[in-house]
Amino acid sequence: MSQQINLINHSLIKQQAFLTFKRAVLITLGLMLILALYTTYAESNLTRLTAQRQQLASDLSQAQTQLAGLAAMHKPHEANPLLMLEIDQLTEKLNLQQQVLATINKSANRPENSYAAIMRGFARQTTDGLWLTGFHLDSLSNQLSIQGATLKADLVPEYIVKLSTEPAFKGRLFSGLNIQQPQLNNQTHSQENPSNKASDVLDSQDTAVTSATPAYIEFSLISNHADSAQMATHANTPASNVVIQKAATGDRS
To answer: Looking at 52, 69, 91, which one is the last position of a domain?
Structure first.
């Protein structure tokens, strides 16, 4: 029977070191290369991020500038006191005009007797040598007063007949008529012609009176609606006609 005996002694075998100088140098060079590559990548990434940051900062600055410009452009201005005062005056004027229009369009009794219809009647009926200086319509008593002037007294009855044909004057009776010479301002006449004082003294009295008399006469009419003044008008018509004829002819007897 054979038997094998191991005569190898491991402790006698020469052991080689794992981390030798050569290996240490190679490992160090490898780590340095890796570190250099990472540093290059980090610097490149940092440069790119820095450029992006600068671009974003520039865009932000431009956006802030535009925002400031828009805010200044759309900034609410303070109200101008003069414009506000003018607006108030125009508003008040508009309200007054609307009230005037409402009053004109308001009818006294019927739509054809409204202020607007009466003024249209005045505008349609005109007579050469006769003109109106004013009129007044009392909406409560429905009394119409007309003032005017004429070159001839005979034109007044003709004008009354013309007004009677207007729808706005239908049913109205002219119960009062007054015709008179206008009053002159002698003081103003003497001041305008101071150089003619000596010649005026030499003129005859009739010539002076004739030159001082104006070429027109003034008249006034009072008209009431037939429903409220028909009886009184018929009662006073003859006497009124006598007074009118004397004033119109200018009888100085």
So the answer is: 52
Residues 157 and 41 in one domain: no
Each residue's pLDDT tens digit, 95-136: 998 887 777 666 544 566 677 788 888 999 888 999 999 988
Kindly report the CATH number assigned to the domain that includes residue 197.
3.30.1360.100
Give CA–CA dist 156/127, Å, rounded.
9
Non-local (6+) Cβ contacts of 139 within 8 A are 106, 108
Radius of gyration of the chain (CA): 57
Nearest-angstrom CA–CA distance, 11 and 14: 8
Interatomic CA distance for residues 182 and 113, integer angstroms: 31
Torsions phi, psi of 136, nearest 5?
A: -145, 130
In a domain, 59, yes or no: no
**Residue 242 in domain:** yes
Confidence (pLDDT) at 249 = 33
Asked whether 136 and 148 are in contact (CB, 8 A), the reply is no
Q: Do 142 and 106 form a contact (C-beta atoms < 8 A)? A: no
Whether residues 120 and 207 fall in one domain:
yes
Tell whether the model's pLDDT for residue 209 goes beyond 60. Answer: no
Helix (H) or strand (E) holding 251: none
State how far the Cα of 125 lies from the Cα of 161, in Å rounded to an integer. Answer: 10
* Mean pLDDT of the region 205-229: 69
